[in-house]
Each structure stands twice: as structure tokens, then as C-alpha cells.
Design brief:
Two copies of one chain form a homodimer.
Chain A (H helix, E strand, L loop, with lengths): L9 E7 L7 H9 L8 E6 L3 E7 H12 L39 E2 L31 E2 L5 E4 L10 H10 L20 E6 L2 E7 H4 L16 E6 L11 H11 L5 E4 L4 E6 L3 H16 L1
Antiparallel strand pairs in A: 1-3, 1-4, 2-3, 2-7, 5-9, 6-8, 7-8, 9-11, 10-11
């Protein structure tokens, strides 16, 4: 396996769900108007808690410009540089204070560091073992009922799904007039991930949400498999804690189960093939018993 | 000729150019997500001074919702109901105070009433004559060099031009890196009008701007003629002054010159066929001399 270290310096930001509308202008620019921005790394992931935005320095400047023009000054932490998705997080300079949540006046915050730094088992060294360090915190896992698609799209055809994508990203939190049949039930999770990194688009969405998009533009793997999610973290994970990815990825690799991993500001998410979800949960629960004992 | 009085109660609002980004979220909803809004009358016109927004009560509620969620409270006048484009304006209850302009903190304002009410020659009674009332104010006219297209579009194909339309409407004020050849010169005017009224779309844009759009989706009249603009008003027109439309439309009708008329918050705009612009200016200057004497 060859690893490429991308040169982008990426920031990880949390946007409150209730404050996303305020970022519509810079986000739409980053999403759909590549000629207006020099951003090469853009990722926006919706979770029940917040939107996690990852942008490189160029994209952050666009974002910041929008922020600074706002009527009310908003605390944009000047520091707190994150790393690439999947790599371990660094501790933001602003090491206290809750983030995310429903702060109408301050929708932007860096992932709060909830724990003291531990010995690092860098995600890049994954197969080092199941035990990422001495006395690691074993994080509880949840497995919502949704079935997810992992999709891509030719960037040239992105304009063709623009209005649908805008609808799903910026207006889905509006309560629909009436719940459509097949809408995710209460045991499902709100989750939507879009990334545009060096011209490559990745989208993870609920299979129900996919029905809103034109069927001929979104591409998936030839098997067309659906994925289930394992969500890691009972309470928000800290940026300073190491080994979180390893304690999930290790057991899955050992059991020969493929995984698609997405970190967000508060929690981590491993997508696994639908057929394997039962054995995944079994494997991870065994890990929990093993590490927790 | 049959006249239909639409039932919409329409508000006329001025959005400062520097504040438009703050309205991106509600405006995109009104423009592109008809299923999310009950708005049936929407019109947004960009001029060098501001953006004029006309929406019915349903659309205004959407707009207001966005406004109220803003970090800083913004003065949204609760009164000041306008009438349909082309009809005479009513005096807003807020009868003093400047509007538009560059107020960063208050980008929304109703057209300020600049003059005392005069005897009304309602625009609906146009052929009543060239003299709309005793001692009418003769407003100076300008004729910028741009050539304009008057276009329409099947609402079903609106999503296909969404990103271009968003780019032109919400991001065109960003200074381009370098001026493209054929860019409007200093004697040209920034003007773009989009309306979506009961499912019918009308767009007026500069012929240069049209080149940014896919050529096969925008429809125009079979003659494909281009239009020139006559802009009425040396200083902002008042909502309470009557007969402004008539003093332009009358002479043009008498000279058998067709006109496409667009009122905005501050000024009025008559588009006339390119071939006729010289005689139009002559006709209107004669009017000026006649009325002014």
C-alpha cells in the first residue's frame, strides 16, 4: 500500500445546526463555484449534533471572509489546526469550553479537548495491534438502523445535482409538512457527508435520501452494496485522545471486514458492508469486553 | 386588452449590495426550492445601488424567518406594502430615513418616500395623456451602453442553470481577478432582473452575462432582438410620486415604440428595442423640453 501525504493544511470546524444558514454564502461558493475559490480540500458532514466542516487554508479564508462580514462579531478561533480525516486530531489552542450545541450567536467552534493527551497510536500505524496504548478508553458504539450509500460523481456533473444537494444540505432540518413514507425512523441517524478533495467527490448518504437525486448521475461501486454504520463515542471524543481509530479499525481488519471511516467534530463513524454488521458488532463488543476487563 | 389583477399582496424591499450574502439562505429557497415555500410572486433585481426584492406575503415570511434568526437584530419594517411592478407605489408607513446605501448592519429598508404625494395619474390609465398631472416633476433619463436580453425559461429546467444563476446573482460583486474582454465598460450599468411569478420566469440580463449560461435553455422572442435601457430618475424616486411610468410610457406609445418596464426601489427602467434607442431618447428629450418649459 502506498500512502500519500496531502500538502493541505486542513482546519476542522463545528457549525451549529441552527447556524448553518449563516454560512450558506461561503459554503455554496466552496461547493459549486470552483473558479471563485482556491480551496482544494472541502468536506462537510451533517450529524445529529452539528455540521463538521473541514477546509484547507484557502477555503478557510473564504469562509472567514463571510464570517467577518456578519452583522454580529462571532468568535472564530484563530488557531486550532486539524489534520486530515482519519489521522489523529491535534489539540486546539482553545482547550476549554463546549462547542457545537445550539449557540445562536456563536455557531462556530473548534472541537473541544475533553481529555488529557494520551500516548499516541497514530492511525497511520494501524496494524500495530488491537491495544493502542496503556489503559485506553473503550468508547461505546451504537449502530443506527439506516442503510447508507457511498457514492461519487463526476465534478463536471455537480451542477446538475446542485439544487437537490443544496436542499438536502441546507434545508433538510426544516420540518417537512408531513413525513414521507420510508422516512428514517427514530432509531435512524441524521448523517450526510460530502467531500470535494482535489477534484474528487465523495458522498455518503442515507439510502432514502439518495432517492431524491437523479439516479443516473451518482456512481457507486459495481456491487452497489449498502452500508451500515457503527458510531463511536458515547460522549464527544476529544481531539487529544489517540488510538480511537485503531481500536475500531484493528479488530475489523483482523476479522477481514472492510470499513469506510469518517471522523467528525464530536464522534467517529465506521461504515461497514450491510451483510457484515452483525459480526462487526460482535467483534467490537468482544473488543469492549476484552479491553474493558 | 384584458387586465388581470393578481391577488398577491407584494412587498417591495431594498437589500444593500454589501448585505445580500446574509439573505442567501432564504433567497435560494425562494428561487430554487418551490416545494419548500408557498411564495408565488418573487422578483429580484440587481442595480448599481441595491437589490430590489419583491415577494408576496408568503415569501416575505420565509425571508423574515431568515432575518429573525440572524445574530444581530435588523430593522425589518413591519409595514410598507408595495403594489405590483408597474403600478404606482404606495407610501410606506415609515416615511423618513434613507434606505439602501451601505449600512452593513441594516441591509434591509423600504423605499424611502422622498416627496410629498401628488395628484395621481394611475399607471393603469396610461393612455389618458402625456401630462400625468399638474406640474409633474420631469425626471432626467440616462441611457447606459449595455445591450440587454429579455429571456424566459421553463421552470422545470431552472435547476440546470442554478449554479450559474447563483454565481451571477450572489457572487458577481466579487471583484474579478482580471477584467474579461467584452466586460461592460464604465458607461455600462450593472443590472440583472429575475422574476418567478406564478410559475413564469422572466430574466433580463446584459448580453455579456448571457454568455455565461448554457445557450440552449434560455428562450427569447423569435426575433432575438436586443434591448437598450432608459433609466429614469436623477435621484431616487419616491414611492408617493405618481405618473412616473406614464411620463415615459405615454410618449413611447404615441411614437409606436414597444417598451419593457421594470421599476426598482430607487429608479425605473424602460427597455426599448436596440434599433429604436435613438428615436426614444429624442422623443423623451422632447418630452423633457415640453414638460419642463
Amino acid at each position: 500500500m502506498e500512502l500519500h501525504i496531502l500538502e493541505h493544511r486542513v482546519r476542522v470546524l463545528s457549525l451549529a445546526r441552527s447556524g448553518l444558514w449563516l454560512y450558506t454564502h461561503p459554503l455554496i461558493k466552496l461547493l459549486f463555484l470552483p473558479r471563485r475559490s482556491r480551496c482544494k480540500f472541502f468536506s462537510l458532514t451533517e450529524t445529529p449534533e452539528d455540521y463538521t466542516l473541514m477546509v484547507d487554508e484557502e477555503g478557510f479564508k473564504d469562509e472567514e471572509t463571510g464570517t467577518q462580514r456578519r452583522a454580529a462579531p462571532v468568535g472564530v478561533p484563530a488557531s486550532g489546526r486539524g489534520h486530515l480525516a482519519g489521522a489523529e486530531r491535534v489539540v486546539p489552542q482553545r482547550s476549554s469550553g463546549a462547542s457545537g450545541g445550539g449557540h445562536e450567536d456563536c455557531p462556530l467552534g473548534h472541537r473541544a479537548a475533553g481529555r488529557a493527551p494520551r500516548v499516541c497510536a497514530d492511525a497511520v500505524h494501524l496494524p500495530d495491534g488491537l491495544h493502542p496504548g496503556p489503559n485506553p478508553t473503550v468508547h461505546p458504539i451504537q449502530s443506527p438502523q439506516n442503510r447508507f450509500c457511498v457514492l461519487t460523481l463526476d465534478p463536471e456533473t455537480l451542477p446538475a445535482i446542485a439544487t437537490t444537494l443544496i436542499d438536502v444540505l441546507f434545508y433538510s432540518h426544516s420540518a417537512p409538512k408531513e413525513a414521507a413514507p420510508g422516512e428514517p425512523g427514530p432509531s435512524s441517524i441524521t448523517f450526510f457527508a460530502f467531500s470535494l478533495i482535489e477534484g474528487y467527490i465523495s458522498i455518503v448518504m442515507d439510502a432514502e435520501t439518495q432517492k431524491k437525486f437523479p439516479s443516473d448521475l451518482l456512481l457507486t461501486s459495481s456491487s452497489g452494496e449498502l452500508w451500515r454504520m457503527v458510531r463511536i463515542g458515547g460522549q464527544p471524543l476529544g481531539f487529544d485522545e489517540c488510538g480511537i481509530v485503531a481500536q475500531i479499525a484493528g479488530p475489523l481488519a483482523a476479522a477481514d471486514i472492510s470499513a469506510y471511516y469518517i471522523s467528525t467534530f464530536n464522534f467517529d463513524h465506521a461504515l461497514v458492508p450491510e451483510d457484515g454488521i452483525d459480526s462487526v458488532i460482535e467483534v467490537l463488543q468482544r473488543r469492549q469486553e476484552g479491553l474493558g476487563s
